[in-house]
Protein backbone atom coordinates (compact mmCIF):
# COMPACT_ATOMS: atom_id res chain seq x y z
CA UNK A 1 0.00 0.00 0.00
CA UNK A 2 1.45 3.34 -1.10
CA UNK A 3 0.23 6.69 0.18
CA UNK A 4 1.32 10.19 -0.78
CA UNK A 5 1.11 12.76 2.04
CA UNK A 6 1.06 16.38 0.89
CA UNK A 7 1.56 19.32 3.21
CA UNK A 8 0.74 22.75 1.79
CA UNK A 9 1.64 26.32 2.55
CA UNK A 10 3.41 27.25 5.79
CA UNK A 11 3.25 23.73 7.17
CA UNK A 12 7.05 23.62 6.96
CA UNK A 13 6.92 25.93 10.01
CA UNK A 14 4.97 23.53 12.22
CA UNK A 15 6.31 23.53 15.76
CA UNK A 16 7.17 27.22 15.53
CA UNK A 17 4.02 28.55 13.89
CA UNK A 18 1.08 29.43 16.18
CA UNK A 19 1.66 26.37 18.41
CA UNK A 20 -1.50 27.16 20.41
CA UNK A 21 -3.46 26.36 17.22
CA UNK A 22 -1.26 23.88 15.37
CA UNK A 23 0.57 22.16 18.24
CA UNK A 24 4.24 21.67 19.00
CA UNK A 25 5.09 18.85 16.62
CA UNK A 26 7.27 19.60 13.64
CA UNK A 27 6.39 18.38 10.16
CA UNK A 28 9.20 15.85 10.36
CA UNK A 29 7.81 14.50 13.65
CA UNK A 30 4.35 14.13 12.10
CA UNK A 31 5.85 12.26 9.13
CA UNK A 32 7.88 9.99 11.43
CA UNK A 33 4.77 9.26 13.52
CA UNK A 34 2.94 8.10 10.39
CA UNK A 35 5.83 5.83 9.43
CA UNK A 36 5.80 4.30 12.94
CA UNK A 37 2.00 3.95 13.11
CA UNK A 38 1.72 2.32 9.69
CA UNK A 39 4.72 0.04 9.17
CA UNK A 40 3.03 -1.65 6.20
CA UNK A 41 2.45 1.56 4.30
CA UNK A 42 5.03 2.94 1.92
CA UNK A 43 4.90 6.72 2.29
CA UNK A 44 6.03 9.57 0.12
CA UNK A 45 5.98 12.98 1.81
CA UNK A 46 5.85 16.28 -0.05
CA UNK A 47 5.66 19.83 1.27
CA UNK A 48 5.42 23.00 -0.77
CA UNK A 49 4.45 26.61 -0.29
CA UNK A 50 3.72 26.86 -4.02
CA UNK A 51 0.31 25.99 -5.41
CA UNK A 52 1.66 24.96 -8.82
CA UNK A 53 4.16 22.56 -7.27
CA UNK A 54 1.33 20.81 -5.45
CA UNK A 55 -0.64 20.62 -8.71
CA UNK A 56 2.45 19.17 -10.45
CA UNK A 57 2.89 16.60 -7.66
CA UNK A 58 -0.75 15.47 -7.89
CA UNK A 59 -0.50 15.32 -11.71
CA UNK A 60 2.64 13.22 -11.45
CA UNK A 61 0.79 10.34 -9.75
CA UNK A 62 -2.15 10.13 -12.19
CA UNK A 63 -0.98 6.84 -13.69
CA UNK A 64 0.99 5.54 -10.72
CA UNK A 65 0.64 2.72 -8.21
CA UNK A 66 -0.28 5.03 -5.31
CA UNK A 67 -3.36 3.83 -3.41
CA UNK A 68 -4.37 7.16 -1.90
CA UNK A 69 -3.43 10.71 -0.98
CA UNK A 70 -3.66 12.52 2.35
CA UNK A 71 -3.48 16.26 1.80
CA UNK A 72 -3.41 19.23 4.14
CA UNK A 73 -3.44 22.08 1.62
CA UNK A 74 -2.98 24.77 4.30
CA UNK A 75 -4.52 28.07 3.21
CA UNK A 76 -4.85 26.76 -0.39
CA UNK A 77 -7.81 24.82 1.04
CA UNK A 78 -9.93 27.90 0.93
CA UNK A 79 -9.38 29.10 -2.64
CA UNK A 80 -7.33 26.79 -4.86
CA UNK A 81 -9.46 25.63 -7.78
CA UNK A 82 -6.23 24.40 -9.41
CA UNK A 83 -5.61 21.91 -6.57
CA UNK A 84 -9.30 20.98 -6.65
CA UNK A 85 -9.05 20.17 -10.38
CA UNK A 86 -5.85 18.17 -9.81
CA UNK A 87 -7.66 16.10 -7.17
CA UNK A 88 -10.52 15.53 -9.63
CA UNK A 89 -8.03 14.10 -12.14
CA UNK A 90 -7.13 11.28 -9.71
CA UNK A 91 -9.02 8.00 -9.49
CA UNK A 92 -7.66 7.04 -6.06
CA UNK A 93 -9.12 8.25 -2.72
CA UNK A 94 -7.91 11.65 -1.57
CA UNK A 95 -8.53 12.63 2.05
CA UNK A 96 -8.25 16.27 3.15
CA UNK A 97 -6.94 16.76 6.67
CA UNK A 98 -6.48 19.76 8.95
CA UNK A 99 -4.77 20.09 12.29
CA UNK A 100 -7.23 22.71 13.51
CA UNK A 101 -11.02 22.62 13.45
CA UNK A 102 -11.46 25.01 10.54
CA UNK A 103 -15.20 25.31 11.31
CA UNK A 104 -14.46 26.87 14.69
CA UNK A 105 -12.17 29.54 13.24
CA UNK A 106 -12.38 32.70 11.11
CA UNK A 107 -15.14 32.84 8.52
CA UNK A 108 -12.78 32.49 5.53
CA UNK A 109 -11.40 29.19 6.91
CA UNK A 110 -14.80 27.57 7.27
CA UNK A 111 -15.05 26.79 3.58
CA UNK A 112 -12.95 24.30 1.65
CA UNK A 113 -13.08 24.32 -2.15
CA UNK A 114 -11.16 21.02 -2.18
CA UNK A 115 -13.08 18.88 0.36
CA UNK A 116 -16.18 18.43 -1.86
CA UNK A 117 -14.08 16.56 -4.45
CA UNK A 118 -12.26 14.43 -1.85
CA UNK A 119 -13.36 11.07 -0.53
CA UNK A 120 -13.63 12.66 2.90
CA UNK A 121 -12.29 15.31 5.24
CA UNK A 122 -10.94 15.24 8.79
CA UNK A 123 -10.30 18.37 10.84
CA UNK A 124 -9.57 19.37 14.39
CA UNK A 125 -7.55 16.50 15.84
CA UNK A 126 -4.08 17.99 15.63
CA UNK A 127 -1.53 15.53 14.26
CA UNK A 128 -4.09 12.76 14.80
CA UNK A 129 -5.99 14.13 11.80
CA UNK A 130 -3.16 12.79 9.63
CA UNK A 131 -3.25 9.39 11.38
CA UNK A 132 -7.02 9.19 10.90
CA UNK A 133 -6.62 10.25 7.26
CA UNK A 134 -4.13 7.46 6.54
CA UNK A 135 -6.23 4.98 8.55
CA UNK A 136 -9.27 5.76 6.41
CA UNK A 137 -7.38 5.00 3.18
CA UNK A 138 -5.98 1.76 4.66
CA UNK A 139 -9.46 0.68 5.82
CA UNK A 140 -11.04 1.56 2.47
CA UNK A 141 -8.67 -0.92 0.82
CA UNK A 142 -9.50 -3.75 3.24
CA UNK A 143 -12.48 -5.99 2.46
CA UNK A 144 -15.38 -5.37 4.87
CA UNK A 145 -15.70 -8.18 7.42
CA UNK A 146 -18.12 -8.98 10.19
CA UNK A 147 -16.91 -9.66 13.75
CA UNK A 148 -16.35 -13.35 12.92
CA UNK A 149 -13.91 -12.39 10.22
CA UNK A 150 -16.15 -13.33 7.28
CA UNK A 151 -16.44 -11.02 4.31
CA UNK A 152 -19.74 -9.18 4.00
C1 LIG B 1 -4.75 24.33 8.29
C2 LIG B 1 -5.92 25.33 8.36
C3 LIG B 1 -5.76 26.42 7.31
O1 LIG B 1 -6.82 27.36 7.40
C4 LIG B 1 -4.45 27.16 7.52
O2 LIG B 1 -4.27 28.12 6.50
C5 LIG B 1 -3.28 26.25 7.62
C6 LIG B 1 -3.41 25.03 8.40
C7 LIG B 1 -4.82 23.27 9.40
O3 LIG B 1 -4.16 22.25 9.28
O4 LIG B 1 -5.51 23.48 10.42
O5 LIG B 1 -2.21 26.54 7.12
O6 LIG B 1 -4.81 23.65 7.05
Short description:
With 152 residues, the protein is α/β, with parallel strands linked by helices. It has five helices and five strands; from the N terminus they run E-H-H-E-H-E-H-E-E-H.
> Taking all residues together, what is the mean pLDDT?
95
The CATH class: Alpha Beta
Query: From the coordinates shown, what is the CATH architecture?
Result: 3-Layer(aba) Sandwich
- CATH topology: the name is Rossmann fold
Judged by helices, strands and strand pairing, the structural class is alpha/beta
Count of extended strands: 5
Radius of gyration: 15 Å
Estimate the strand proportion: 15-25%
Spatially, the strands of the biggest sheet line up as 2-1-3-4-5
**Fraction of residues in helices?**
25-40%
Task: Give the biggest beta sheet.
Answer: 5 strands, parallel
Number of domains: 1
List the bound ligands: 1,3,4-trihydroxy-5-OXO-cyclohexanecarboxylic acid
Query: What is the N-to-C succession of helices and strands?
Result: EHHEHEHEEH
Please tell me about this protein's structure.
Pfam families: DHquinase_II. Pathway: Metabolic intermediate biosynthesis; chorismate biosynthesis; chorismate from D-erythrose 4-phosphate and phosphoenolpyruvate: step 3/7. This is 3-dehydroquinate dehydratase. By secondary structure, the chain is α/β, with parallel strands linked by helices. It has a single domain (2-141), classed as Rossmann fold. Helix content is 31%, strand content 17%. It is built from five helices and five strands; from the N terminus they run βααβαβαββα. The chain has helices at residues 19-22, 27-37, 51-60, 81-88, 128-141; strands spanning 2-7, 42-47, 68-72, 94-98, 120-123. The chain has a five-stranded parallel beta sheet with strand order 2-1-3-4-5, with helices on one face. Strand 3, helix 4 and strand 4 (94-98) form a beta-alpha-beta unit. Helix 3 (51-60) runs parallel beside helix 4 (81-88). The mean pLDDT is 95. 1,3,4-trihydroxy-5-OXO-cyclohexanecarboxylic acid binds next to loops.
Amino acid sequence: MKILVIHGANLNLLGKREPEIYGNMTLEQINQTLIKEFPNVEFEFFQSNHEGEIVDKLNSIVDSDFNGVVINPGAFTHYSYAIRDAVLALKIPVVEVHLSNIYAREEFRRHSVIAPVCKGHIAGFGHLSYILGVESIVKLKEPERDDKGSDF
